[in-house]
Write a sequence for this structure.
């Protein structure tokens, strides 16, 4: 009771965030510039897809029905699980628990690395069946948007490797670097959720 009274008298409020974290945007500002730019580029593709879908709805619906929704759902679960462990690993890094942070990021890398493998498992039969980018307008958008996203996934996996190396080699890694990697990976996740809804689910 005495300690509490002394803290109150001194104006200490444990419920308030530290001054150096209050209102702070996680990660490096340069990454957020890149993320926002990427989101705008994808937004242009999303708008174009919706425009042509409205004009050729029957074609898009018929083509959409030829996609494997189960594989798309598996990839969605993989990325959501990966992002969950990225968030847990980043929170552990902020708390100073490098061991738990490292485990979280390694698990996230494993789930994230499964995404390209599953995507190739999906693409190979489709291409073998003649469903190439030149097949029709739907499949042009499908391959362009999922292909661009796959490139972002690969880049994200590389960034994750650098974050893991930083967690391995330093007892106190630079938190802004960890947060930067997390911000990029969460963007990759959000983009896939939109792609999954547009390409696989929307009717």
């Amino acid at each position: 009771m005495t300690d509490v009274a002394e803290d109150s008298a001194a104006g200490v409020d444990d419920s308030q965030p530290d001054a150096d974290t209050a209102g702070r945007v996680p990660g490096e500002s340069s990454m957020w510039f890149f993320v926002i730019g990427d989101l705008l580029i994808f937004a242009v593709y999303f708008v174009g897809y919706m425009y042509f879908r409205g004009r050729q709805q029957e074609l898009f619906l018929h083509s959409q029905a030829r996609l494997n929704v189960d594989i798309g759902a598996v990839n969605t679960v993989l990325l959501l699980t990966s992002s969950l462990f990225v968030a847990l690993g980043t929170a552990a890094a902020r708390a100073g628990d490098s061991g738990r942070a490292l485990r979280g990021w390694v698990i996230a890398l494993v789930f994230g690395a499964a995404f390209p493998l599953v995507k190739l498992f999906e693409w190979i039969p489709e291409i073998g069946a003649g469903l190439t980018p030149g097949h029709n307008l739907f499949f042009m958008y499908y391959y362009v948007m999922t292909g661009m996203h796959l490139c972002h996934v690969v880049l994200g996996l590389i960034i994750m490797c650098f974050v893991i190396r930083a967690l391995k080699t330093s007892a106190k890694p630079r938190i802004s670097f960890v947060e930067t990697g997390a911000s990029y990976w969460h963007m990759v996740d959000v983009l896939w959720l939109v792609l999954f809804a547009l390409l696989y689910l929307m009717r």
